[in-house]
Amino acid sequence: MGVLITVLAVCAVAGLVLLALSLHNVQQYEKGVVFRFGRLLPDIRGPGLRVIRPIGDRMRKVSVQTEVLGIPPQGSITADNVTLTVDAVVYFKVIDPVKALVNVRDYPAAVSQIAQTSLRSVIGRADLDTLLSDRDHINAELKKVMDAPTEEPWGLRIERVEIKDIALPESMMRSMSKQAEAERERRARVIAADGEFQASQRLTDAAATMADTPGALQLRLLQTVVDVSAEKNSTLVMPFPVEMLRFFEHQSRRDEGSGAESDGRLVRRSDRRGALSAEAVTPEPAMPVPDPARAASLSEELTGSRAEVAQERRDNWPTRRDAQEALSG
Q1: Using CA atoms, how far apart are residues 75 and 84, in angstroms rounded to an integer?
Q2: In what order do the strands lie in the sheet with 57-63?
Q3: Helix 242-281 with 292-316: angle, nearest 10 deg
Q4: In sequence order, which residues have a C-beta less than 8 Å from that of residue 53 and are 6 or more positions away?
């Protein structure tokens, strides 16, 4: 009786051990691949409690989560012969657990190696400006280069590749800073020149408007006086009417015109006097005694010329009515 109880107890313990060996818990983010005596079984175990043969079966769990793999800094030479150091990060996941276990050994290390070689090859085909300004294009090209040898043969999908940092030599950084400073200075000068051009156009339009409207200049003068008087200073501003300046300007032009006409008439009159005097003084050989009628006509002609000159001076002289018209205009 005691021997039977011992045998039953041993069998129970052995059954519990075998049951424990045959039960496997697969997480939600994992896939179970079963090998029976080294041979792959076609069925892939999903998440949950799974039972396998305790003897001869071995289960390998593969995570299907997205894994992040950092690429060590890689020294490379760009297409324009610039030496730099670049490091990146790779995001990948397992889409076929069977290929990831059977076709490649230690797939994270394999992804790291292929990422390093791909990074160097892509950096060698790009120039420095593209590498610094168009990183999206470089990242897409890196992903495309790494997808070809990993997705179909290894069952891995490269989801994203990002360049983290680009280390440049000190001399190159100084050169780039000088170039950027020169570019900013050029833009500042262009913007200042454009502002001056626009300001000159606006001033031209304002001058044309003020020329068409005489009262605008006076209003602008009064506004300037208001701006100056707003400050607390001891400056006394006495505005001078613009109409007075225009009156003097018109008057000076009229005097110049009348003076030129008077000079011309005086020259003609002096020429006429000279001719008349020469004609009057020069004795005619045929007539020793001058004709009294001719002398009288010459005297009347000289008197008429003097009266005409005096009348022109009176007509051209500015009157009070002219000053009032100039002020009102």
Answers
A1: 6
A2: 39-45, 30-36, 57-63
A3: 170
A4: 22, 36
Which residue in the block uniquely carries the two structure tokens 């000279």? 274
Encoding tokens for residue 233? 């200073």
From the CB of residue 62, how many other CB atoms can be counted at a distance below 10 Å?
Answer: 18
- List 36's β-bridge partners, or say none: 39, 57
- Checking 249-255 for CB contacts under 8 A at 24+ apart, the result is 250/326, 251/318, 251/326, 254/316, 254/318
Q: What is the residue-level pLDDT of the chain in tens, covering all 329 positions?
A: 677 777 777 787 777 777 777 888 888 888 888 888 888 888 888 888 888 888 888 888 899 899 999 988 888 888 888 888 898 999 999 999 999 988 888 899 999 999 999 999 898 888 888 888 888 888 989 998 988 888 888 989 999 999 888 888 888 888 888 888 899 999 999 999 999 999 999 888 888 887 777 777 777 777 777 777 666 665 555 555 656 666 667 777 777 666 555 555 544 554 554 444 444 444 444 444 445 555 555 555 555 555 665 566 556 655 555 555 655 55
Q: Is the Cβ–Cβ distance between 43 and 59 less than 8 Å?
A: no
Ranges assigned E (strand) in the chain: 23-26, 30-36, 39-45, 48-51, 57-63, 67-77, 83-94, 156-167
Q: Which residues pair with 47 in a beta bridge?
A: none
Question: Which phi and psi angles does 196 have, rounded to 5°?
Answer: -65, -40
Q: Which amino acid is at 22?
A: S
* Residue keyed to tokens 């613009």: 242
Say what the pTM is. 0.53
